Amino acid sequence: MAPLLEIRNLSVSLELPNARLHAVRGATISLDRGQTLGIVGESGSGKSMTALALMRLLPRGAEVNVGRLAFDGKDLTAVPDAVFAREFLGRRMAMIFQEPMTSLNPVYTIGRQLTEASVRQGVLSAKAAHQRAIALLDRTGIPDPAGRMSQYPHQLSGGQRQRVMIAMALMMKPELLIADEPTTALDVTVQAQILELLAGLQREMGMAMILISHDLAVVSEHTDRVAVMYGGEMIEEGRAAEVMAAPKHPYTQALLKAIPRMDGPPMKLAAIPGTVPSAISIPKACIFASRCDLVRDVCRSERPPVQGSDEHWRRCVLTEAELAAGRHVAPAEVIVRSAIAAPASPVIEATDIVQVFQSRRRLFGPKKENRAVDGVSLTLKHGETLALVGESGSGKSTLARIMLGLSLPTSGAVLMQGRPLADLSPRQRAALVQPVFQDPYSSLNPRRTLAEIIVRPLELRGDGTSQTRLARVREVMDMVRLSHRLIHTYPSQLSGGQRQRVAIARALATSPEALVCDEPTSALDVSVQAQILNLLSDLQANLGLSCLVITHDMAVVHQIADRVAVMLNGRLVEEGPTDTVLNRPIHEYTRTLLAAAPRFRAEEPRLELSRHE
Amino acid sequence: MNIGIEPNLQAADEPAPLTPQQIMRRRARKHRSLMIGAGIILVLALIALLAPLLAPHDPFVQSLGKRMLPQVWAQGGNWDYILGTDQNGRDYLSRLIYGARVSMAIGIGAAAIGLLIGVTLGVLAGYFGGWVDHAVSFLLTAQLALPGLLLAMALVFIIGPSVWVVIGIIGVLHWTYYLVVTRSATQRIRTLDFVAAASASGATPRQIIWHEILPNLVSQIIVIFTFELGIAILAEASLSFLGVGIQPPTPSWGLMIAEGKQAMFYRPWLVILPGICLFMLVIGANLMGDGLRDITAPEGRN
Known about the structure:
Number of strands of chain B: 0
Shape of chain A: globular
Distance between the termini of chain A: 52 Å
Radius of gyration of chain A: 26 Å
Distance between the termini of chain B: 31 Å
Oligomer: heterodimer
Helix content of chain B: 55-70%
Number of helices of chain B: 13
Low-confidence stretches of chain B: 1-15, 298-302
Low-confidence stretches of chain A: 601-613
Structural class of chain B: mainly alpha
Strand content of chain B: under 5%
Helix content of chain A: 25-40%
Largest sheet of chain A: 8 strands, mixed
Shape of chain B: elongated
């Protein structure tokens, strides 16, 4: 039987201001009915472009070339756009996008958006569509589905909107569902539920599904087969469990080692050096060669061959034996959690912090109170890494701003090295604590060069002469391992990981006692996240920094934190040493968070671990 | 051996080749109407600057014997007075060339005064919010409710006309675009993390505004400046046409149209020529403004 979807040699190129970007090259996919395929890759790997090309949703200026593109045996390249939109989109293949906040139209009711397409296309009568919509909302786990039909998107939470999106995609019983990062924008506990829901629906309805994600663990848990993409090419494909257990491409191997894991003691992560390349010209050699540990001369001059069976293939010159050897090299270094001596002096001490936000509906309307932080006491001790965990809206970022001294709490006191915050001038405060933000794209002024950005805190303090300041800039750039060549570049010329290094360098310029990092890696790719996490651990060990790290990722907590504090609805619900909290959580919510963290289904035996024990 | 691979594939830390300024320059060169607009403005600016060298005659010297000479292409025209003379026998070409000076000075001067007022208010309102924002918004509403031309006429009438007064009054009445745009842009930029990072480093609001916010507003301000340039030039022409702007004998295109009006039916070129000049200058300013907006639009940013 012919496969449901067959794509051979798909290439997509995009127009850039100064060049053409070959976003996808030679992608090949074959998917049977009822089967699930995961496409994994870091940003810029071309995974979304592949899906968008199939759905004909590519941005303007994109050029598609494909050897064969067939759906259910029918050649899609011959189908004109209008017919494709009428007969295939929504009816036979549907797509779910990443951002639930913007993928629903805010001015129409949920019910109208759910039923519109199927009624207009004459698939269902208005009444049947209404009933099916309610049934699907019910199935996707939205409480009071009939009542929701007349509500508007802003009345739903992010997770609920994504459920609505799923229901909408399933209205016309498509044979193929494409989910492009369906959970990336959601909280961890909600992520797990949505993925479970998708997997359940896929089985029930016998759909084929393509799940696109940057998270290897998520994909391996929920799909039959996995295709790994890198720099616009598919470099490995095979059964999900097998790819996880015995990855056969150096990139996949490196990627798995770069992911922080929660089994066993935290290891120094095997970060992949450098960043994901973008293909401006069509490469004539192995695309991963510049970052590969096992690189040979031939990798730099010739295209690697496809090896292995149809069941599990890779695009690499190395033999099985060479790869297997590569899997077990270099025992990772165990990170020793600093055992903080009990009377370690506190750097920042927050007691009974309450932050109330007031909002009015109208100019003279009644005030509404929102207690974002509700009586929290938290102490950051000298030399430790304290992780503050919670979901969006739990008040963790508000608390961080208060501990940074950026905003004043409604009540409660913040002491920095024993002195009340109010007694410190902004300059003194800046010398004690510095922030690192989540989004490296908005944390650097786009109009300033790196040198200007990093030197600014020193200028503001009026330290030294311009020569000594420049020397300090070079020094901190070394600390965060940024090349001096970048000193006169602008942020837009850097990758996300490099920008985050710049942000850290700026924070370190004035040699502060403590860093407050708000989700420092959640906007970064896995391989780059490993670089930044390693960097933070090193800096802390070498400089004796104290770090307050805000995160939602339990694996990151496990990786770098000495102590954990868990926040829920503005209150601290659990606090303690990392190992204790992660292994024997007391609060129900901590357990939920831990259970929601994606894990690997099939593990290779952790040989590195036994060597240290 | 690295055949055919982009440099940034080899060395991981290699920066992308273009700075934001380079990208902008590249886009500008490809944008045809921007180039045309900038070309027109440049040529007219040069004419205005070099007026004493270019003008064939003194634009103020009246010669009653040579009144209303026709243009060179009309019957009886001669090459001494290419564009003929006006009712007082002054060389029309020279007057048009000197008129460019007045238009340019008023356009640039008034747009700059408006910039100063509008950007200051906009940044303050956007950055501080609260009652400052309310106060500025009230000012804006009040300004928008006033009939601009009428007010300008009244003010010129009270203060007394001169080039400087006209520049000042037009400038003081044209700051609303600057305010609206810079206010909302400042509100957006203020929430970005680099502003928080600066204040965590102990920067004062003043330092944040000058060092972090204003550099990010420059491209938008330039765009509005070019649009306001065109608007101010037209405002001067209207005032001069109505007799409360530039006073004779200073040559101004608006005033020349007003003076040519009586002879419009048998010497139409007296009105058409300054009209063409005005049209070119304003269309040049608008093409340039449009083009600048296109190449600095946020969606096109890399």
